[in-house]
Specification:
The chain has 385 residues and is an alpha/beta fold. It has two domains: 117 residues, no CATH class; 218 residues, Spore Coat Polysaccharide Biosynthesis Protein SpsA, Chain A (Alpha-Beta Complex), CATH 3.90.550. Helix content is 50%, strand content 13%. It is built from 13 helices and eight strands. An eight-stranded mixed beta sheet has the order 3-2-1-4-7-6-8-5, sandwiched between helices. The longest helix has 31 residues. It is elongated. The model has no long low-confidence stretch (mean pLDDT 95).
Length: 385
């Protein structure tokens, strides 16, 4: 019981730090400030890399084309070797709009990740706008969102303004996995630290990234992150480490229309990049799994084992009960705002330890896939290490 109690106490200390000293990672607001007129609205070109996205484009592309941005706004969709009629679908949806262009990506050079190469093809076709908006084909925008992004960038002097899209929670597995996915991302990259000048934390959300083109060019352009499988975090780091000022928020105005109806779909979403995030390091993999077990599995395990011990009159059972319950409660309290954001019951916070164990399994499977030669597989294409 003593060992279990000490482990539970260590978890409690860890959770108190995360809750009070880790950049307020659990906060879900306030979002972008209200739009203000900068006087002269800069040119913006949205770059949409798309591979086999014909099915989702009718739900998303019109929302981007109909933004009503006060300045010059164009959309460049890059067809990345699709075989489902993505380019033709996009052209049909755009009709005779003069602010829309389809670019068919050239063959991907060796060493380039597929999405980053498609993004670079879009940048090449974009010309010289002041801002580039990198966005995904499955992202739908509320009217005026581009205006809000540019307004925030201009008013605050930001070089990267990114919005994490609200993901689908329609199915049972989505409701289990998605809020935790966003929660864990924010835990790794607290949004307030991303926005803090001088802080090392840097990240972005790939579904919506407004970037000042001059700063991107100064940083070496997308050629500086050619092989990045996690392109959004890589871009955020590139901009910030070259003196750029960044901002990252959650957003209800930016919504992913991509469904993940099965556990297998969600599992793949995480497993394809988890080991990449750990820089393919077995040491980091083992450390990550051990930390997940300590922080998420030990508190409920210690609390339940301690209660059994108390009932049986075992000495030293009070510590694992008190520390385990305390850590479990703090954990649940930090997860509650994310559940509220996704309009889900707080009761789900109690089972976060089980979800964390699923994520541990996904992370281990990500390493397995890497060593099996299938790591980073996405839409029929494997990105090499």
């Amino acid at each position: 019981m003593l060992v279990l109690g000490v482990l539970a106490l260590a978890a409690l200390v860890g959770w108190l730090y995360l809750a009070l000293g880790h950049g307020g990672f659990w906060r879900t607001g306030p979002g972008l400030p209200a739009s203000s007129d900068p006087g002269e609205w800069p040119d913006v070109v949205a770059v949409v890399p798309a591979r086999d996205e014909a099915a989702v484009l009718p739900e998303t592309l019109p929302t981007l084309l109909d933004q009503g941005y006060p300045g010059e706004f164009r959309v460049v969709l890059v067809d990345d070797a699709s075989d489902d009629g993505t380019a033709e679908t996009a052209e049909r949806l755009a009709g005779d709009r003069s602010n829309f262009q389809v670019v068919r990506a050239k063959d991907r050079p060796e060493g380039w990740a597929g999405k980053v190469w498609a993004m670079s093809e879009g940048v090449r076709a974009a010309g010289g706008p002041e801002f580039l908006l990198f966005t995904d084909a499955d992202i739908a925008y509320a009217p005026g969102t581009v205006t809000s992004l540019v307004s925030a960038a201009q008013a605050e002097g930001r070089d990267l303004v990114s919005q994490m899209a609200t993901l689908s929670v329609r199915t049972g597995w989505e409701r289990v996995i998605v809020p935790a996915f966003v929660y864990f991302f924010a835990q790794l990259y607290p949004f307030r630290r991303v926005a803090r000048d001088g802080a090392r934390t840097a990240a972005a959300a790939g579904g919506c990234m407004l970037v000042r083109r001059a700063v991107l060019v100064r940083a070496g352009g997308l050629a500086a992150i050619t092989g990045a499988l996690i392109d959004d975090v890589a871009l955020g780091r590139l901009i910030k480490r070259n003196g750029g000022r960044c901002r990252l928020d959650l957003s209800r105005d930016v919504v992913s229309r991509r469904p993940y109806p099965r556990l297998a779909d969600l599992w793949m979403m995480v497993a394809r990049s988890a080991y990449v995030q750990l820089r393919y390091s077995p040491v980091l993999l083992v450390g990550t799994v051990l930390v997940l077990l300590l922080m998420y599995a030990v508190p409920p395990g210690a609390a339940l084992a301690g209660m059994v011990g108390l009932a049986a009159g075992v000495d030293g059972a009070v510590l694992p009960v008190a520390a385990g319950l305390g850590a479990w409660m703090v954990m649940a309290a930090t997860f509650a705002p994310m559940l509220r954001y996704y309009r889900l019951s707080f009761v789900r916070a109690v089972v976060l330890p089980l979800v964390a164990l699923l994520y541990a399994g996904m992370t281990v499977d990500s390493a397995r896939r890497h060593y099996a030669g299938t790591g980073g597989a996405w839409k029929g294409r494997t990105t090499p290490r």
